[in-house]
Structure formats: C-alpha cells, structure tokens
Design goal:
Blueprint lengths: L1 E5 L2 E4 L4 E8 L8 E6 L6 E6 L6 E3 L7 E6 L4 E6 L8 E7 L3 E2 L3 E6 L1
C-alpha cells in the first residue's frame, strides 16, 4: 500500500488542523491505520490509531481529548482532526498502515 499524507501547515496555538492520508495500491480496509509524529531531535512517537472497521480508536495521552482519528474505507482515507493545538505538537506527522507501510510525512508547526 502507498500512503500520501497532507494537511500540515503553520497554525497558532489553540488553532486546528486536519491531516489526511490517502491510500492506494492495497486493500485499505485490511489495515489498522495510525498517525505518528517526530519532533526535531526526538524519537518518533505514537499519536493515534484506528482499527480496520473504524470502531476502536486509541490515542496517546498527550493528545487525548484534542485529536480525533477517523477513517473512510470507501474513500481509502484516514483523517486526524487536531484541535487546541500546542507548540509541543510541532512535528512531522506520518500515517502508517499496520506500522509496516509509511507515508512521507507532513509538517505541522504550532506557534506560541
């Protein structure tokens, strides 16, 4: 499967962004999808995941209550709605399928 992430940008603290990840060349509905992020000089960390059906989601404690992951299997897409953004959310965000296939990343910068 090939993944293409988009939607990153520059936003002020407290603002919102929505990331999208489009999948191709695979059976999208067969993968658990997730978002990960990597801040400068830090390890890549888990952000959120959603099961194949979309019924079960999981979030890192740092984003619970602010981020929402969802998927549309008919459109082969997974979304990450990010609200109440903080400067510490600044990172390159990656989508992944089963943590095996990875997109190229999209940069999110949150200014104070």
């Amino acid at each position: 499967v090939q993944l293409q992430a988009s939607g990153g940008g520059l936003v002020q603290a407290g603002g919102s962004l929505r990331l999208s990840c489009a999948a191709s060349k695979g059976t999208f509905s067969g993968y658990t999808m997730g978002w990960w992020r990597q801040a400068p000089e830090k390890e890549r960390e888990f952000v959120a995941s959603v099961t194949r059906s979309g019924r079960i989601t999981n979030y890192a404690d740092s984003v619970k209550g602010r981020f929402t992951i969802s998927r549309d299997n008919a459109k082969n897409m997974v979304l990450l709605q990010m609200n109440s953004l903080k400067p510490e959310d600044t990172a390159v965000y990656y989508c992944a399928a089963d943590q095996i296939w990875w997109g190229q990343g999209t940069l999110v910068t949150v200014s104070a």
